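One example copied in:
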Amino acid sequence: MITQVTKGIKISVATSFEGTFFKNYKTHFAFGYTISIENQSKHSVQLTSRHWQIFDALNEMEILDGEGVIGKKPVIKPGQSHTYSSGCLLSSPIGSMKGYFNMVNFTTTEKFRVYVPVFKFSAPFALN
């Protein structure tokens, strides 16, 4: 598991290989990831949006921006956490993601970024 703390918000990421499938005459590699966002600060915060950079060994980097995570904009009180799972498809058995969450501190109304460290994807058969 990969972890990183930014401004009292701890991000933990675990990844998994979900399998391969064939679509539109092309093989795709499915990866899952679970992210836990733990509020170790003294203030309630809300996740408002996300930014991802997805690296695929066989393709250009893909950038994705969106509101919240999996349709939610969670409010996380001090000492609490929010965990969600998602996934991505790659054309290669090896890749990675990194990014950040845009957050708002409810006490100070400060907007800030919480960085998600690079997390890697690799199919079990791809590396020795």
Q: What stands out?
A: The radius of gyration is 16 Å. The longest strand covers residues 9-23. DSSP finds no helices and nine strands in the chain. The domain at 2-119 is CATH 2.60.40.1470 (Immunoglobulin-like).
